[in-house]
Automatic annotation (TrEMBL):
Coiled-coil region list: 26-60
Keywords tagged on the record: Coiled coil
Protein name: ElaB/YqjD/DUF883 family membrane-anchored ribosome-binding protein
Biased composition (Basic and acidic residues): 214-226
UniProt-annotated stretches for the region Disordered: 196-243
Compositionally biased tracts (Polar residues): 232-243
Organism: Acinetobacter baylyi
Length: 243
């Protein structure tokens, strides 16, 4: 740059121009800063005002006002002679509350009944299996015996398993006085379900523990039942079939 084009920074006019530019820039920043401070102040004041309103709310009073509003609506309807509509609204509200209570109680009752049924079946099965063990039945037959008993027994008021018929009535035992107990019922299975007991005298056919029964001693229905309910015993019975 030639000396003719150099800016004389010491020139009073140049100095004045530079200072004016700096002052203008600074003024803009100061104005923006003042604007932000003012916005922040206004926001703080609005938040404070909102907080004071919320802190002063009385929720109980609001509920009373809402109830009163509902009552005012009814009063208006009554004033207009719409008594039937008021009655319908109240009836519907009561019905909804009643349905809600009924549903809650039913769910609670169903839950209690399901629990009671599971507990009752568990107790019955325990007593049946215990009777089967005492009667000398095969341990592997316990599950089948318990399954057969589940629809034929109930618990009496003392928690004892007693036999019932298809109508739920208690079945009286051989003594003609007391209900059929698990032990008596288990013994009644010996005739029709001999394969639930150990084989007699070490023979290959299932029996009652007192005599040996062979293929010819069973009816077709008994063989089919044996094959379905106790396949292992059926295989043993096949060995007694005369060739």
């Amino acid at each position: 740059m030639s000396d003719d084009n150099k800016i004389d920074l010491e020139n009073p006019e140049v100095k004045a121009a530079i200072q004016a530019a700096v002052d203008e820039a600074v003024k803009g920043l100061k104005d923006k800063n003042a604007e932000l401070i003012n916005d922040k102040k206004q926001l703080k004041e609005e938040l404070g005002s909102l907080k004071s309103k919320v802190d002063g709310l009385d929720l109980d009073a609001i509920k009373v006002l809402l109830d009163k509003s509902f009552q005012d609506e009814e009063s208006k309807l009554i004033a207009e002679g719409k008594i039937e509509e008021v009655i319908q609204k109240r009836t519907e509200k009561m019905r909804q509350e009643h349905d809600k209570q009924v549903k809650t109680e039913k769910e609670r009752a169903d839950k209690a009944e399901n629990y009671a049924n599971k507990f009752r079946q568990s107790v019955i099965q325990g007593q049946i299996i215990q009777a089967a063990v005492e009667a000398g039945a095969l341990s592997e037959a316990s599950a089948d015996i318990a399954f057969l008993a589940q629809s034929q027994f109930s618990l009496d008021e003392n928690g004892k398993a007693v036999a019932i018929d298809s109508n739920g009535e208690i079945v009286i035992g051989k003594d003609g006085a007391t209900p059929v107990q698990p032990k008596e019922w288990i013994e009644s299975l010996r005739e029709n379900k001999p394969y639930f007991w150990p084989k007699a005298d070490g023979m290959g056919s299932p029996g009652s523990g007192k005599s040996t029964k062979k293929w010819s001693d069973y009816t077709e229905a008994e063989r089919a039942s044996l094959a379905r309910e106790n396949p292992n015993a059926f295989q043993q019975l096949l060995k007694t079939k005369e060739t």
